[in-house]
Amino acid sequence: MLIYNLALYEDRTFIRVNAENDPLFYFFDYDVRSAQINMQFQHFHPFYELCVLLGNKTTHFLEGKPYNLNTFDIMGIAPGVLHMTQYPEGDPCRRLIIQFSLPPKAAGLSNEYEQLLSVFHSGLPIFRFEPELRAKLYRRLNDIFLLAGKSDPMRNLSIHIKFVEFLTLLFLNQDKNQYADEAEMTPADKKIYAIASHIHAHFAEPLSLESLAVQFFISSCYLSHQFKAVTGFTITDYIQMTRVRNVQSMLLREDVPITEAALSCGFQSFSQFNRVFQKHIGMTPSQYRKLNRSHPAWLEE
User: Fold this and answer.
1) Which of 137, 171, 215, 274 is the most buried (most CB within 10 A)?
2) Domain 187-294 in this protein, CATH class
3) CA separation (Å) from 265 to 80, 200, 300?
C-alpha cells in the first residue's frame, strides 16, 4: 500500500537481517501505535534507531526533552540514549521503526560508517526535508520494502546497500534540514522539562528536590507538585529511574563491574543501588545482565 503517495507500508510487516548482537543488523518494523500503549518511562537500545513517522503528529522525548514530530519527520536515536514516544488520543499512528548496527571495524570503510552515524549524535537529530529530497529518501526505504519480499540470494546484501544509500543521502543533506523545535508548552511546563533534561545530563552528580529547586529558582513544594503533574513521576523516582536506565545500558554495552557502574551513575552506595534497581526492574543487577546478554528483551515502541 502506498500512503500519502510517498511511502510503501503494510501493517505488521517485519524485515530482519541478522540478530541484534551481530555487527551488521537490521530490523524494520511497520506498525501502528496509539495512546493506549504509551510507555511510562523512557527506554534505550544498544543499537541505532530511526523513527519514521507516517501518521498523526506525536511527541517524542529524548533525554527528558519533548519534541513534536509531524508526518514524514525522521528522528535518529543513538545507542544508549533514553527516549520515548507519546502517541496522541484518537486514531492509531502509522510509523516505521528501523533498528540497526553497522560493523565498527569494516575494512576500508570504518571512517565512512562513522561519518554516516554522526548525524545521530548531532545536537538535534530530527529531520524534515522539502518534498523533492524527502521523496528521494523514501524511495530508498520503498526499495527495501520491495526487496524484502523477494526470494533472492542477494536479498540481505541489497537491503544493506539501499540502507547505506539512505544514510548517505541523510548525511549529505543534513544542512537542508528544515526541522525546528516546535513543542507547544506553557512556561511552567517548559521549566519542568528543562529540569528533566538537566537530570538526564547530570544524573551522575548529587541531585535532590531541594538542590534542583534552588538551582531553578522555584520552591521545592511547587516543584514537587508540578513535576509529578507534568511527568507522572516524583523527582526522586525520576532521578532514580534515569540512573537505573544508564546503569542498564552500561551493564549491557560495557564489561564493567556492577559496583563501578552504579557509582559512576550517581548512586552513593551499592546497597542503595541494589534496592532501587530491584524496585524498578524487578530483579537484581546481576540477574538482569545475565538474562539480557543471553536473551535480549528490548522494549518495543
Assistant:
1) 137
2) mainly alpha
3) 13, 11, 24
